């Protein structure tokens, strides 16, 4: 084992970075980078790594190739994937049995294995280079891109891509005011949801006079279907840490906390490892790099309450109290953790800091739109071909994200809506596909940027059902302090549930809107104030669907069970018996090659027959 | 001194005061429910909403928790405030229709119907009892459980709390609950005094042993004594009647 050498001065750190960069350049071995974030591991990447190791050993390739276990590469649809570097061949959906072929063909014979390549859906051609895959082509992966290059458990690997160079710059060439000014100039806004300008937030915390100050990294990622923060902490923990050290230096904080969900074991493991490594190396602790700047970081694990993503609730939770928001002002920058000035930023915001310090505010502010600078990571999920994490410059249109990067809707179905911003966000309809994605434009159509969830819905999605889903989430996750939020979400859910069950009546919509507005107006924290968004935005853009449920007692998308009916189309039925077996109720009867009969009184509308039929002989009304 | 405007009126106050404090001082009425002078501010009932800021950027805040700030513009009776407040009363009424206090509020602010399904929970989770117990009685016998729609007030593990001295402070401040007697229901009731009728005092006590540090302040021993003597009197009377007969 290599003896740990503490880095004592800024110059020492600079030298270690340079030597690591050189070491990476002079690397002669091929590298197989295997994505093994939580999602990759779920798809079996650990097994792939094992069989790769075995294959390398069997074929005596230890001198020619090495395996690098990295965090998430972003392309979830293609997990587990391997990028062969330095030639940049992208292999998708690799199985353990493919390991031998990869080593023998690609490493020894320099051949590309065709069947493991990604097929471009638009052209039907195989693509070998990572950068030519449409999913990656339109992205601007200034933050997420490094995930594919480094082993998150190895600090030297982070140094070898120039990591901690920004810290060197910040500590040696910049004053604290200059750092804050740079962040202000860059136009970086909080990536956690509300989009408050980060530089100004830092300035408030810096200006408050106090002997003790804190910074907090908010990693309480709670939106259903959003996982960019997890991916960053898993795949590039040192970068978040570097951002935090720079921020603490600028604000004058001596202690930092990372508030992470306990449901993210791998992220917690990697960031813990990064912290202990940084402590060993002297990048955290007393007199960092010979300066008089002290800074320590601790991890606090949250118990998975959505509301703890709210600043004041998060502080309460760190202090060991119940995670309930309180009145702001006083803002955390004045009175935060333990009553001291506290600055809270989201994981992605912190990860942006090293980049801004290194490349400058001007470089950063060139990316994006007038009001929204830089890139944003979205988790593109739902009814979409290329599920995954995408990092795009602000101002890109929804159409580009969904159709160019996401590859459109599977099964040739029609796009219906996209939901951004998680439970607090709204649904944006087809007509607004050319909307630029930035803070202002999204707010204008009744949605929010949020932390970056993007759920795509196709024609078979019922928008009333979507509203019901988010309300159900919110009524459960509301802390319950304000009656407006606790009872408001519960009652909205009751009304929407009634509508989906065919019990909706005239006037429900107006009442629902009034209640939604009262909930928005009267609640104390961001959760309640945005809880009405799923309802208000679906009513605004999909009113006809609500009316079909209430007046005609029909669900146009064929989702709400109480309002639909399955029936057999006699002309199409071939009498193949395929639908009879899956029916759990024995509601379908029939003989071979004779038209089958569905008994409505027995049918529970599970849809099993619909899935089983190969001849489109079952219809939903 | 801080100067702010409430309903167009310029008012002055000290630092550390809330909007509600200032309004009360100047005699401007703002309805409250979860607010109690002797307890910490909570901001849960949302009745004391006021509109702050200037058009077009105004928002509603609870005046009991929002600090008075220099130059703040406050309006207590805008359409937006009244509509939100009425909806809050309707929501409260739908879970605690039996509460006299909430009924009075409804009548005062013109809430004439409840459009929600009634749930007779007789608790609006205003947290007055929890704060009363912790802050005034130094008890901490009850608290909130769960979150969201599952939130409720109870004792730890839903069992009789050893911290509870049966002082009744929680019942005293409650605007809605029917805890005066819920019958012998051990699972839901907070008080359950009838089920857990352990004598609050030891069988025998004197001034030194009385846990209230003062003889008979809780009244149990006195009550027991008088009941005892009453019973004796009663039996004596009945015996006399029997004799006379």
Q: Can you tell me the overall shape of chain B?
A: elongated
Which strands sit side by side, in order, in the main sheet of chain A? 12-11-15-13-14
| Coarse shape of chain A | globular
Helix content, binned percent of chain B: 25-40%
The sequence of SSEs of chain B as H and E is EEHEEEHHHEEHH
- CATH class (first level) name of the largest domain in chain B: Alpha Beta
**Structural domain count of chain B:** 3
Number of helices of chain B: 6
Cα-atom radius of gyration of chain A: 27 Å
Which class best fits the helix and strand makeup of chain B?
alpha+beta
- Strand count of chain A: 19
- Gap between N and C termini of chain A: 69 Å
Percent in strands of chain B:
5-15%
- Which range best describes the helical content of chain A: under 10%, 10-25%, 25-40%, 40-55%, 55-70% or over 70%? 25-40%
How is the quaternary structure best described? heterodimer
Distance between the termini of chain B: 82 Å
CATH architecture of the largest domain in chain B: Roll
CATH hierarchy class name of the largest domain in chain A: Alpha Beta
Instruction: Report the mean per-residue pLDDT of chain B as an integer.
Output: 82
InterPro entries (chain A): 4Fe4S_Fe-S-bd, Nuo51_FMN-bd, Nuo51_FMN-bd_sf, Nuop51_4Fe4S-bd, Nuop51_4Fe4S-bd_sf, Thioredoxin-like_sf
Pfam families (chain A): Complex1_51K, Fer4_10, NADH_4Fe-4S
Family (chain A): Belongs to the complex I 51 kDa subunit family.
Protein name (chain A): 4Fe-4S ferredoxin-type domain-containing protein
